[in-house]
Amino acid sequence: MSAAALAGAVLVTCALLAYALNHMLARVALVEVALNEGLPPGFETAPSSLAFDFQAAAATLAGGLHLFLSRSCHACQSLVDELGADHTAVGDLPVVVHHIGVPRDGTIKLVDLLGAGLELDQLATASRLGIDPLPHAIAIGPKGLIAHGAVPTTADLDRVARDGGLFAALAP
Questions:
Q1: In-domain check, residue 110
Q2: d(CA 122, CA 66)
Q3: Which of 53, 77, 150, 164 is deepest in the core (most CB within 10 A)?
Q4: Secondary structure of residue 109 in the 3-state scheme
Q5: Is residue 11 assigned to a domain?
Q6: Same structural domain for residues 71 and 143?
Q7: How many angstroms separate the CA atoms of 116 and 149, rounded?
Q8: What is the pLDDT of residues 35-57, one digit of tens each?
Q9: Rounded distance, CA 170 to CA 155, Å?
Q10: Spatial separation of the C-alpha atoms in residues 67 and 88, rounded to whole Å
Q11: Over 70: is that where the pLDDT of 155 sits?
């Protein structure tokens, strides 16, 4: 084999390896973006067949405000940031953060700031209760009134808390 043919074969091999590595890195980057910021705009997940189970919520959860979050949920991180900037938004309500998976540092700091409880690895609980989509809040009032809903902002969190009979001074 001549030197020119050998050099050509090495060049083609390097080009194919670079092409394969580029595609592999692009896929890894997409997974990283999905884990850190949520799914890309326009990406549609399958519709949820979950229906909220009020009886399971009453039997499983104590009174107060229960907040379900996930590390891979961009709206969850935005809510954590918003609550961290104005942690008085939940007033003196008893808050429990149910985290699906491992929480980010900001979530742990928020839990400490609020004096809230933190429950980890709550995927089974969320599935059993019919929690979808995230972030999701469940408010259980002193007379057993239960309200729930998606809460991407503190205003939505306020609505769920008030609907659940939790009449603390909440941010608008």
A1: yes
A2: 12
A3: 164
A4: helix
A5: yes
A6: yes
A7: 20
A8: 666 655 555 555 455 688 888 88
A9: 9
A10: 16
A11: yes
